[in-house]
Amino acid sequence: MASTSSSKGKTTPRLRKQGQPEAPPSSYEYDQVQEDEHHADVYSSPRDRSGIEKFFESQQGSVVVVSALTALAFALRFYKISHPDQVVFDEVHFGKFAAYYITHQYYFDVHPPLAKLLFGLAGWFVGFDGSFLFENIGDSYITNNVPYVGMRALPAVLGSLTVPVVYAIMKESGYSTIIAAFSASLILFDNAHVAQSRLILLDAALIFFMSLTIYSYIRFRKFRYLEFTFDWWVWLLATGFFMACTWASKVNGILTVFCIGAAVLFDLWDVLDVRKEGHTMDYFYSHFLARAGGLILWPFIVYLSFFWIHFRVLTQSGPGDSFMSPAFQETLAGNELLLQSHDIYYYDIITMRHKDTKVFLHSHPDKYPLQYEDNRVSSQGQQVTGYGHNDTNNHWRIVPTKSLPETGRGRIVRNNDVVQLLHMATNTLLLTHDVASPLMPTNQEFTTWPKDDYSRHNDTLFTIQLAWDAPENEPFKSKSGYFKLIHVPTRVALWTHPKTLPDWAYKQQEINGNKNPSERSAIWYIEDIIADQYGEEPIGRDEDSRPVKTPKRMSFFKKFAELQLLMFQHNAGLTASHPYASGPINWPFLISGISFWTDNATNKQIYLTGNIVSWWTCVVGLSIFVGIIGADLIARRRALDPIPDAVRNRLWNNTGFFLIVWAVHYVPFFLMNRQLFIHHYLPSHLASALIAGSVLNFVLSDTINFPISYPTSKTRLRPSQYADVGFKGLATVIAYGLLLFMMFVYIAPLTYGTPGLTGEQVNSKRLLSSWTLHFAAKKTHDA
Amino acid sequence: MSFSGNVRARRPASPPAGLGHHHHHQAPLTSPGTVPTMSTQRFPHPKEDHLDADARRAAASKGFGPVRASGKYFASGGLNLTQGEYKLLFVIVLVACAVRLFRLSKPNSVVFDEVHFGKFAGKYIKTRYYVDVHPPLAKLLITLAGWLFGYNGDFDFKDIGKVYENVPYVAMRMLPATLGVATVPLSYLTLRALDCRASTSLLAALFITFENGLVTQSRHILLDSPLVFFTALTVFFWVGFCNEDKHKPFTNSWWTWLTLSGLSLGAVLSCKWVGLFTVATVGFSTVYQLWILLGDIRVSPRLWIKHFVARAICLIAVPVIFYMMMFSIHFAILQNSGDGDGFMSSEFQHTLGGRHMADTYADVAIGSKVTLRHWNTQGGYLHSHPHNYPTGSKQQQITLYPHRDHNNDWLLLNATADGDPSEDYKEHPLVYLANGHRIKLRHTATEKHLHSHDHRPPVSEVDFQNEVSAYGLKGFVGDANDDWIVEIYEGDRRDKKSKERVRTLRTKFRLKHALQGCYLFSHKVKLPEWGFEQQEVTCNKNAVKDNSLWFVETAQHEMLPADAEKVNYRSPGFLAKFWELQKVMWTTNAGLTDRHTYDSRPESWPLLRRGINFWVKDHHQIYLIGNPFVWYLSTLAIGAYVAVRGFLILRQKRGYRDFDNTKVTRYDALCGFFFMGWALHYLPFFLMQRQLFLHHYFPALYFAILLFCSVFDLITSTLRPRIRLQIALVFIAFAIWNFYHLSPLAYGLDWTRGQCEKAKWVKTWDFSCNDFYTDVSSLSDLLRENC
């Protein structure tokens, strides 16, 4: 109680004087201090409260409330969890990946492995043997004997535990039990969160770890005056750990990393400020290093360790092989490349295939027509095309341009060798020159040239450039040797694209020279070695003629770097349209949902959509908060001070942090070109529920629990006060909880996928006309 | 006394002078003994000793510099130039003219995008409607120049390198060239208005004069030179306005500068949409001003609102009105049908001469002869012609055809008639076509029926699409696959009847195939050559609603009386046309995603990695490339600004009071403004997916050059004027030397391969030296032979 006794009793409680324009500016600031102190005085005593309020604010009360919320969360998330007994939506993917972990087959996915590893673990624990591959939405679990309930239980548990974490975040932020319960119930009764956490999907894990990250960070911040103590370190490292888990669960977890990063930058900025804290640079460096260690290095180690487990578990060849580099593939047991790739010698007859479109490099005696339809002229040389089928016109011989030893390993073709390619059927050499290709005026034409005519020798020289940055003398191998064929004089790369030539080339695919030699789609590989120089089957020529080829080794960091890069590229490449994809602007308003599953026989369906009351409340809360902040900014610009200091600090620092969480998890989606779905908004929805709670607190009362950071002997003592939302708060939250619950129950048939609905019922559940529900009754047409 | 009385009269009745916005009012109070020579100044000069440190800092942040040793008083409001500077400016303009107009008539053939903009000038003169992604102002100006000098619009500007015949192309090139010349003195005046020294301003003016890229771009019929000019003009007016605002708001000259800023903003916006970046620059600057005013609690809310409204009117309303006026001129000129018709809606097309349609009967009944139009695409009319599909059923083709033709005529027949439907309707009274009617559509020219069946269409070969064909023969009454059911989707609000039955032009309806349940559908997919590249028509089971809507454009019925009600398209008003064109421009612009051989991404621009090949002919070449010296210095200035400003922020955080130094605050405000201009004209390009070129960097380059000159002003601020001038002249000499070396690419002059190879200072510059002769003598030999 540091307040002055002079102002005690002069003003009746809760009648705080707002800004006083009539006061002369000189004494203005003094008045503000007076007012704040007086204010603190009025609310600093919890004594004059009703018994119910006191109970709720007590330790036991809090435990009772959070237990009730948690129990309810489990109930709502486990209710009929066995329904539907079929594969739903993306269970197709994530169920499959869990199965691969159990069978140790290598797979490739854009998401990091943690959540999928957990599913694998859950599946293994309940005795799933990994034989069922979740091929199609609607496949039956029952007939395939899949213990799917055990696997679904994992996200359900995580999703249920998110509710008490949300509650704890609000409690730790200094709001009253009632407000914390309000925020928690926005998540508890949300249909989208429930639907998403009852199925084998990654989002429940993502959201759970994300909320734990926020919780840990807030705990960490509360120790800010006790820096470098044990507790401080514990919560710093916990933040880093959960942050890594969030990121390792799903690729968009990286946003949580950015969001903590932003908060830390703000924090460090304050530490740096000599006027605010007055610390030395050494002090700043120690803080900086602690955070760099705890929030960059340590999480990265955690993140890496999940990948380490991932690679340790997936040791067998599987469907993900073909995404990886040959070197990587050869680390997998049973991989085709490992078993079938052979060294290539000069004068071998080979067939080569384009990696993306799988056509063979082909040529036939027909010539290019003199003039194309657009009046450009050709060289009238022999056609070189891409052909999809195996045929002797695909046979080429690799001719050296250097002298070779008679026998032995000196005859192996190696990276960066300059070669000629001889077309066996017509005895001509592959050539390209500065003539425009038939379909693309910007690219060079490929043709062939008689073998014995040396006049154009230079134009028939090509460099074999192995992909994946292979070393200089790397041997060139069939199957695994992905390479580019670069023309020596003009530096174009042999390239093809899915457009077909007109009838004069039998609608085969065009081959041309791409002037951008770094083009990623210019990669080819040797499909097969048809014969060696004597026309015989090649046998026993490999360097490592091991009896049974054992997988090779590759450093973990190389594997990690390669996989990480591929994940990034594929994630950016997910641009195909999807019928239920939606734009970010629609999400907060719940404009559209996703149809997860339908059953025509019983008219049942699962449609991912949120609790409309919860979501719109969050939007309203957000806008009120932005309004308050804006008004406060302008008022302070005009030297008015309408909000007590403690409350303003809470609004800016705590609710502002929630706003950053919301924005960082939401705004970046506007810049992404990949397919986006409404469930990408769920982390932001959680953040907006936190904002809604603190806005409700602000609306109900201008008190908070203050201070909440742990003091030290050095901290400036401030008058403490207690949150007091009063009886109206309790009433509001209970009434609101009921409303939420009713709305939840109303939409529940879409969330749980049962019971089946008649057409009229579907129409009535379609609260927004933009929801595309199935089995809707046709509107009767008034002709 | 009379003097001080005058000054007082100029002062607004405001709270007592303090340390903020109106600090200058303090001057007469605290310095009653100001010497009479002051009365020639618009404002008495606040000698440093009259203001304390805070006030000095505040003054500096508003752009007032410290008093110079020369004793020259800083400008207050508007622009103050000395007599000598006018002469200097005159010389600068002469030099700029020489550089930009040198051999303007060469080459005498079409260069780069003259293909487009020359063509558009022809369209204006012929009043043929066209659609382009750029707003009309710059093109109108070019047209004006061409028209004044007798261009008749006949030349087609078809290909780069086509030799001009009967085109006053020099006059047309004069327009961008003149504006390019005018940019040079503007840069001088802008820096002077910002209180930079004359030598600095001279440096800026000559850097811009000798910037190869700006020179090349301004010598041809292109839009970027007007764009850069209007950007520079806006910056100049805005700077002038800011000076006025610091001096005294709401005077006549304050309003003039503000209005001029607004007008030139409108002009930038009307040249190219990237003018929006200039709008953003001025916008941010305005918001900052208003924020400062808001913090000055002696500015009453009422006065603040006045500030706000004045800026809103002049910087939002004026530009928008200007922009719309440009379009109204555009529409007023382009009154006739042209190759842009196809982009516009039917109502819009109706307003164009040559596309005008006569009134048609409003009622549609069984037995009406109608033309049907697709509602969502501009593909045109439901059409058939005596050619067959080479695929599927191999029956007669159904397409969408954009022009009027008797092959678009269809006869509506009752499919449920007992006898021959083509005779049946004549025996009954008129039956209006209404919802649920089962009809057949008979193609009158070939006497076949619109037909669909379980065959895949030729292009969209997917399961849910059925082929639509014309099937039957003369006298054949047709089969059930010819039957379509009318489903009215929407009528017109102002025509009640159109919701109940089909009315010409007013009712949108769908046609559902009676057996297959699919809807008659079309989309923006062209048939191959055998279908004359007309638009594909199918019957779609999952039809997108908009693409399955049709309406009757014309209808006639032999049993309707001649005086029956007639209708026509409702002519859209200006706003409707304006808005429609904006949308078309937007979608066309967003669709420009094809790669171009010489396009480049924004990250390569500040480093001048690559230029654009404008024109190659007869062993001469024009290649757009910047002056590397000027270019790299400007980029360097950007980097230096970011580094220094970042460092200052950190220092400030650690309690160093750098910003108490008036010099720091003054140059911070100056450089900060140019940096903001650069960033806003550059960074947004990273978000654009469309094809981008080096010349998109030019407005940003203008800001970067001015930033460099401000940095120069700062660094040389402690030197004697003479030394400063000498340093500036060295810089200018280097710039001219660089310019000279690359100038053959700007002017398309004689050059040899060797010189060309030597000029390739940066490996990624890709002008093709192989096009030049190995030595000039062979060129002159060639010329001699020709003579």
From TrEMBL, chain A:
One of its GO terms (cellular component) is endoplasmic reticulum membrane. Its EC number is 2.4.1.109. Residues 1-10 have a biased composition (Polar residues). It catalyses: a di-trans,poly-cis-dolichyl beta-D-mannosyl phosphate + L-threonyl-[protein] = 3-O-(alpha-D-mannosyl)-L-threonyl-[protein] + a di-trans,poly-cis-dolichyl phosphate + H(+); a di-trans,poly-cis-dolichyl beta-D-mannosyl phosphate + L-seryl-[protein] = 3-O-(alpha-D-mannosyl)-L-seryl-[protein] + a di-trans,poly-cis-dolichyl phosphate + H(+). Keywords: Endoplasmic reticulum, Glycoprotein, Glycosyltransferase, Membrane, Repeat, Transferase, Transmembrane, Transmembrane helix. It is an enzyme of class 2 (transferase). Pfam families: MIR, PMT, PMT_4TMC. Residues 341-401, 410-467, 473-529 form the MIR domain. CDD domains: beta-trefoil_MIR_PMT4-like. One of its GO terms (molecular function) is dolichyl-phosphate-mannose-protein mannosyltransferase activity. Residues 35-46 have a biased composition (Basic and acidic residues). The keyword Glycoprotein applies. It is a multi-pass membrane protein. It is found in: Endoplasmic reticulum membrane. The keyword Glycosyltransferase applies. Residues 1-46 are annotated as: Disordered. The chain crosses the membrane at residues 114-134, 146-167, 199-218, 230-249, 284-309, 613-635, 656-673, 685-708, 729-748. InterPro entries: ArnT-like_N, MIR_dom_sf, MIR_motif, PMT-like, PMT_4TMC. Pathway: Protein modification; protein glycosylation. Transfers mannose from Dol-P-mannose to Ser or Thr residues on proteins. PANTHER family: DOLICHYL-PHOSPHATE-MANNOSE--PROTEIN MANNOSYLTRANSFERASE (PTHR10050), PROTEIN O-MANNOSYL-TRANSFERASE 1 (PTHR10050:SF51). Belongs to the glycosyltransferase 39 family. This is Dolichyl-phosphate-mannose--protein mannosyltransferase.
From TrEMBL, chain B:
The chain crosses the membrane at residues 129-150, 170-191, 221-242, 276-296, 308-333, 629-648, 669-688, 694-716, 723-740. The keyword Transferase applies. Pfam families: MIR (PF02815), PMT (PF02366), PMT_4TMC (PF16192). Its EC number is 2.4.1.109. It catalyses: a di-trans,poly-cis-dolichyl beta-D-mannosyl phosphate + L-seryl-[protein] = 3-O-(alpha-D-mannosyl)-L-seryl-[protein] + a di-trans,poly-cis-dolichyl phosphate + H(+); a di-trans,poly-cis-dolichyl beta-D-mannosyl phosphate + L-threonyl-[protein] = 3-O-(alpha-D-mannosyl)-L-threonyl-[protein] + a di-trans,poly-cis-dolichyl phosphate + H(+). One of its GO terms (molecular function) is dolichyl-phosphate-mannose-protein mannosyltransferase activity. Residues 1-48 are annotated as: Disordered. Transfers mannose from Dol-P-mannose to Ser or Thr residues on proteins. It is a multi-pass membrane protein. It comes from Coprinellus micaceus (Glistening ink-cap mushroom). This is Dolichyl-phosphate-mannose--protein mannosyltransferase. Residues 361-415, 430-489, 499-555 form the MIR domain. Pathway: Protein modification; protein glycosylation. It is found in: Endoplasmic reticulum membrane. It is an enzyme of class 2 (transferase). Belongs to the glycosyltransferase 39 family. Gene3D superfamilies: 2.80.10.50. InterPro entries: ArnT-like_N, MIR_dom_sf, MIR_motif, PMT-like, PMT_4TMC.
